[in-house]
Amino acid sequence: MDKNSIIGLFIIGAIIIGFGIYNQPSQEQIDAARKYNDSIALVQKEKAVVELATKDETPVEVMKEGIVEMDSASQVIADSIKKAEMNQTYGVFTTSALSEGKDIVVENDVLKLIFATKGGRIKSAELKDYQTYDSLPLVIMDASSRFGLNFFTRNNKNIVTEELNFEVNNEGFVVTGDNEKSITFRLNAGSGKYLEYVYTIKGNDYMIDLDLNMVGLNEVMAPRTSELLLDWKVNTPILEKSRVDQVNKSTLYYKFVDQDVDYISERSDEKENFEADVKWVSLKQQFFNTSLIAKSAFSKYNAYGETETRPDTSKYIKTLSTSLSVPFGGSDIETFGMSIFLGPNKHDLLENYGIGLEQIIDLGWGILGWINEYAVIPVFNALDSTAMSYGIIILILTVLLKLVLFPITYKTYMSGAKMRVLKPEIAEINAKYGDDAMKKQQATMALYRQTGVNPLAGCIPMLIQMPILIAMFKFFPASIELRQESFLWATDLSTYDSILNLGFEIPFYGDHVSLFTILMAISLAFYTKFNSQMGMGATAEGPMAAQMKIMMYLMPVMMLFFFNSYPAGLSYYYFLANVISLLQTLIIQKVFINEDAIRAKLEANKKRPKANKKSKFQQKLEEMAKQQQQLKGKGK
């Protein structure tokens, strides 16, 4: 072979080798081909196993071997598919989405908390010092609740932290007294980037501090992100005997920065968009609340509060939810501080936090709230510190209130006594002028002017007492101190007492019979009847007397229906107030009022020279009498 032939063969060989190298598949193509072949093999194995299973003579061991090989291959492919899907959804948080979650138990003196690594949230909260109406552990918030952040990543993936598993730094603990401990949940985003929840629990406190630490998230979140949305929802459980009371006293309260506390009406289901930055939101139940408080403020962006009443068949009362915005400045390291309150609606406890949280307790508006906050509650707390029965405390409180109001009560009855003394003379005027209302009114006013009697003097003191009576109407239903406290036959002064369950519903009355309400209605009937003989009712005649008589009998019946489902503590208070008022009336009549002396004083007043000028009240009455006379004349 000559030299040229050798060179030619060498060139041909080089071309063949080079062509082979050039057309060699890449590693990705090799992997794809392998997966394809594996899939073909898997299908063939599945087909073979099915064929073996249909043959009676196939050994069981052979079938098992084929199934195991098929399951192993299927699992690998399924895991790969799942990971790919997770990566499409969660991106850098895929590892957290695939990991398994677990529960962590943390306790202090007053709370038992169950944390879930999935979402890094408080999954359940039990109040150790309280029970439900049927003596079960009181869980103020259960696993159906929601708490999590929402945000978008740079590659437009919507991250919901509730769906992801956080790493936790310990396996739970118990902290007591003045000590405090922290538990940390971290959601890793790779390369030292993470979102972190740091919960700090004090030994003897219902308030939990929560710091949101955001490290490197400015490189993870979508550009120009300025807020993370915080979604929080609680399904309020059945904790009390009366579902109606829970519905009527459960709602969402909120406080804007540097503004007054506001709330969504308990009587309606609403969605309230927040129009200013939010300091705190409280999901209030009848006697308990779960509240979220910002150390600075939540942004108003996309923020709202919402309430939804659940059906009567549900194990929950209402769904209370809020969406708040956590500000994000785009820095490499940021922290947002907040606190979570999980506890009772106890006025002094909430007031001590200094953020206005005590205003979620409905003590009445305006002067009613002022009376309760600055007069009734301090006295009640002072009596409570003696460790007496709450039935005795209510008795003493009622006596003290009646003593404070005694001067006003005395003036009311003194005015009534003057009117009784003048009754014969008023009767003579009525007989003298008959149907002439104008002259009758003028003569009556002249008599009042001569004797120095003001017919409204008995009404004004009663009006002064009204705010106190209404304030007590608001105080007792809102007092958690009465919850599950028994007295006599009442097992719980914070709800209705029942001596008989009817087994059927009476409209506007209920399905039970409250003995304290019956006693209150009976005492009101006696007091109203006796009082009518002492006051204005003693001088009333004609249609006015008939109307007063109807009201005297109608009011106790109305109260019987109205108060049957109200707290036993409230009905007991009104029963005591009626009895004490009746005793006061008897004492005033027997000891303080001498009608002969009053008559002599009024006769002396007649002899004194009087100015002819009429009072504005007398002028108004005479003007009204003239108008009635004119209308009567037109009608003839």
Automatic annotation (TrEMBL):
<dbReference type="GO" id="GO:0032977">
    <property type="term" value="F:membrane insertase activity"/>
</dbReference>
<comment type="similarity">
    <text>Belongs to the OXA1/ALB3/YidC family. Type 1 subfamily.</text>
</comment>
<feature type="transmembrane region" description="Helical">
    <location>
        <begin position="550"/>
        <end position="566"/>
    </location>
</feature>
<feature type="domain" description="Membrane insertase YidC N-terminal">
    <location>
        <begin position="104"/>
        <end position="372"/>
    </location>
</feature>
<dbReference type="Pfam" id="PF02096">
    <property type="entry name" value="60KD_IMP"/>
</dbReference>
<keyword id="KW-1133">Transmembrane helix</keyword>
<keyword id="KW-0812">Transmembrane</keyword>
<dbReference type="GO" id="GO:0051205">
    <property type="term" value="P:protein insertion into membrane"/>
</dbReference>
<keyword id="KW-0813">Transport</keyword>
<keyword id="KW-1003">Cell membrane</keyword>
<protein>
    <recommendedName>
        <fullName>Membrane protein insertase YidC</fullName>
    </recommendedName>
</protein>
<dbReference type="GO" id="GO:0015031">
    <property type="term" value="P:protein transport"/>
</dbReference>
<keyword id="KW-0143">Chaperone</keyword>
<feature type="transmembrane region" description="Helical">
    <location>
        <begin position="512"/>
        <end position="530"/>
    </location>
</feature>
<comment type="subunit">
    <text>Interacts with the Sec translocase complex via SecD. Specifically interacts with transmembrane segments of nascent integral membrane proteins during membrane integration.</text>
</comment>
<feature type="domain" description="Membrane insertase YidC/Oxa/ALB C-terminal">
    <location>
        <begin position="390"/>
        <end position="590"/>
    </location>
</feature>
<dbReference type="InterPro" id="IPR001708">
    <property type="entry name" value="YidC/ALB3/OXA1/COX18"/>
</dbReference>
<dbReference type="Pfam" id="PF14849">
    <property type="entry name" value="YidC_periplas"/>
</dbReference>
<dbReference type="InterPro" id="IPR019998">
    <property type="entry name" value="Membr_insert_YidC"/>
</dbReference>
<feature type="transmembrane region" description="Helical">
    <location>
        <begin position="5"/>
        <end position="22"/>
    </location>
</feature>
<feature type="transmembrane region" description="Helical">
    <location>
        <begin position="387"/>
        <end position="410"/>
    </location>
</feature>
<dbReference type="GO" id="GO:0005886">
    <property type="term" value="C:plasma membrane"/>
</dbReference>
<dbReference type="InterPro" id="IPR038221">
    <property type="entry name" value="YidC_periplasmic_sf"/>
</dbReference>
<keyword id="KW-0653">Protein transport</keyword>
<feature type="transmembrane region" description="Helical">
    <location>
        <begin position="455"/>
        <end position="476"/>
    </location>
</feature>
<dbReference type="InterPro" id="IPR047196">
    <property type="entry name" value="YidC_ALB_C"/>
</dbReference>
<keyword id="KW-0472">Membrane</keyword>
<dbReference type="InterPro" id="IPR028055">
    <property type="entry name" value="YidC/Oxa/ALB_C"/>
</dbReference>
<dbReference type="InterPro" id="IPR028053">
    <property type="entry name" value="Membr_insert_YidC_N"/>
</dbReference>
<comment type="function">
    <text>Required for the insertion and/or proper folding and/or complex formation of integral membrane proteins into the membrane. Involved in integration of membrane proteins that insert both dependently and independently of the Sec translocase complex, as well as at least some lipoproteins. Aids folding of multispanning membrane proteins.</text>
</comment>
